[in-house]
Amino acid sequence: RFYCCKSFTANKINTMKKLFFTIASLCMFQQMKAQDTKIIAHRGAWKEFNLPENSIASLQKAIEIKAFGSEFDVRRTLDGKLVVNHDPTHFGDTIELTNYAVLNAKKLSNGEDLPLLEDYFKKGTASDHQTLLICEIKAALLSNTTSQLTTLETLALAKKLGIEDRIIYISFDFEVLQTIRTNRPKATVLYLENNKSLEEVMAAKFNGINFNYAQFIGYPSIAANAKKQNLMLGSWTVNKDEDFNNLVAQGITFITTNFPERYLTQLDHKH
Question: pTM of the entire structure?
Fold first, then answer.
């Protein structure tokens, strides 16, 4: 009777030990994933600090809070100026059909000029901080030729300024990224649209994918399969804690959000 009781106790202790180590391993695994997670400020750190999106002020705030990267959007005006703006219009004027001087007559809400890409690049790399520039090249509305000009001129400007190693390129336009890969074999490029197979992404020699968060949450196999192929993983635009935690658990490295300071703080608490 004593032996049976002793055996039961030993088995119970072993079970408890296994449970403890399983929980500890899971916690360590989650911590490792949190440490691997990089926060990217979506259009700069604008929302949390009441700044215009894609402004130089929002870029400088992203640098100040030490975001891993600050994302922004590049378009080309009618007279060939590269500007930073998400929408194809600026105060109702279509950017690619309007000269810069006309567009810039209408200032951002903080009084800034419509940012020229060259000024944005210079401000974003003015010191030795670690925040990368996450450069999204937008497809032109009317002409693929304009998309390609925007791409080639952006690459040329980065080379002229000597900042190529401080930029990650992203785009919804597959051909734009192909042009980057052809002209800058060492550049990091991530595809934003989930309309190509992982095999096509790898065949194009892109570094990885950067999909909307709903794709990863709805289809966890995407991340699992991409990791097997050693592809980089990013997701946008992640603004809810439950979505953020889900993506961290899946091992999504680059998380783009309108709340970079909030999630940088959360990651600090997870470490």
Answer: 0.88
